[in-house]
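Internal QA ticket QA-208
Title: Verify multi-chain structure generation after dependency bump
Assignee: T.L.

Test input:
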Amino acid sequence: MNRRKMLSLLGASPAMLAGARIEAETSKKTNAKAGAAAGKIVALNPKGNPPPIQLVPMAKRLDTLDGKTIYLVSDGFPGADHFLNQIAIWFRKNMPSVTTIYRLKAGQFADDDPKLNAEIKANGNAVIMAIGH
Amino acid sequence: MVTVAFKDLALSNAAQRGMPHERICFTPHPVWGKTDEEMYAYLEGNDPVSGKPLMKEVIGALTNPLTAEESKTGEVSVSTGPETFADTEDNLQQYYIDNGMTDFMQIVLPTEERVEAMLKGTSHKPDEVVGKMSPARGSYPDWSFTVRQVAINAVMAGAKPEYFPTVLAMAASGVTALSSSTNSFAVAAIINGPIRDKLNMNYGIGAMGPFAQPNAAIGRAWTMLSRNLSNSGIPGQTYLGTLGNSVNYNNLIIPENEKASPWTPLSVQKGFKVDENVVSLFVGFSISQGQGGIGLGVKPVPQYHQAIAYNCTPFLPLFGALIVFDPLVAQGLVELGFKTKEQLAEWLQKNQTISAKDARSTLTGGRWAPESIPDDQRVTYYQRPDSYNFVVVGGQTNPYHMVANMSYRVSVSIDQWA
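Actual output:
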């Protein structure tokens, strides 16, 4: 992924990414003099400070799903349990060697569930998590 | 797997958490309310984003070998752009709007001189970290911000330096005015203490309307700083409110009318002294009129408490109740026997009820009305009286009230930011 795409996902606006007609100055003092001299106003960036991002590598993939155990995890949004049940039915019909186990994640939507994570690590090979309404 | 309405959110959230290549498959939206057959048809169909067969994509996501990009580690720093912008006034106004740094109205351009003037409104150093905030705690990374950065946003909103400690207190609370939720939440700030008069805040006629500069500017500053200091309010990414909410323009800023109230100020209920300057913050659904509720206008003595219970009927108990009274209503409630706000809260908690059957049909009703309770048995909306909060404000032209399905979040001392 290139830097422009990354920044757009992190919230940097399209105008700023596209290189707006506004001069981007990095030095306040230089900027104030230059701005005043050119009859322009110098105004300040109101943005706060985002934390740096630690890249998380993806988990190694499976060679095949045959004979594997997949956890189907709901984050609690309405309808997720029914939808994941349909996925379980799909696997039973189309890939019967796959075992599926349904779980509802504990806590609020974005909360971590260490107990469930430990269970999946011990007993599962993969996770499909359902998010959305 | 994510429903396609949240595509931008899913991708940006994954990137912000260090997983720009997280393998995400999308389904049509919504899932909620669909039959089993309809949901199975989603699985047999295509991912609406990639156009590829969905389950084939799911299997591929779990089995296709990782790419070099997907295996990367390390740290990525995020830039929010240059420190300053230089251009003509008209071009700058448009630039701030085009880059989503405003409420889409013209601002007071934050020049160095104006920001320095704003900083004189506090004794705190410009580089001091005020706090952190995110569009939804836990779901998005927290951004941090300094006194100076809050000052820039306060200038943009049209605030005066004497308003700045109040704005700093709101920023320090960490409560965003632009919650990411699909529910289009609103926020309220109740102001108590002598600062209301010092700033000439309006707590009389039209208190919650556009009739006083401090009320307007402080509220607007909350929206501005939420947008810029925490990355809240980007539609599709950090703002998913399906309808939006016009309250978000400058929020419910409510200085309590302490002089005309027969009761204890809200800040004192929250543990502060009566002469302390405090802002108390609430989040939830919007506010609605209370006029016309059962118990008003017909009997010789309006039964305000019954009207309030009735008007709170549509509430979702996931959030509490914030009731805003004109002083005439507060005085009427005292005459009905509610000598304190606590007494009123206790009565409402016991008497605002719903059938178990109706409770179970609400989004979270199953939590307090399990299947074991008979359908026609009444259950209370709230389990505790402190789910109700009250504030007295208004100009006594009519005994009206408003109700908001909002929860109390926190009270912050304004004095500590002076």
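Spot checks passed. Residues 322 and 389 of chain B are 5 Å apart (CA to CA).
Status: verified.
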